Input
Amino acid sequence: MFVVQRRRGYVTGVQTTLRATGPLPADQAWERYADLDRWSHWAPQISGVSVTDSAGPDTRRLGTGLRGSVRAAGVVGLPFEVTAVDETARTWSWRVSAGPVTLHLDHRVEEARADDGPRVRSRTWLRTTGPAVVVLPYAPLAFIALHSLLLDR
Output
């Protein structure tokens, strides 16, 4: 789903919301998000995560205020800051920058719904907001990553 944001008569950015379902239980899917060392296993666009400023004693786990750099395509280090984490609700948000461009990403993992079918044990969504020139090409990669996150492997 694509939502165009408008301000003063011109398009300032876009927001995409991507959704996926899968066989992995929601608690296990959340752990794949929460453990930074697991990101490169399910997100093909991420080859590593470095932490520069931790909000708590566990520097390799999501936490509000966590800062670092996510390595994309094995070469580009993009600075990030985790802006919110709610482990109980299984939600988290972060900002990722590339020069003057900033993306805002919101994530959630949920239990499957009764109408999802017998093989679906979890659902996830990602809302990405930023300049269209970055958000739209990122959407296919993010879509693959969301599905990979929920695979039972």
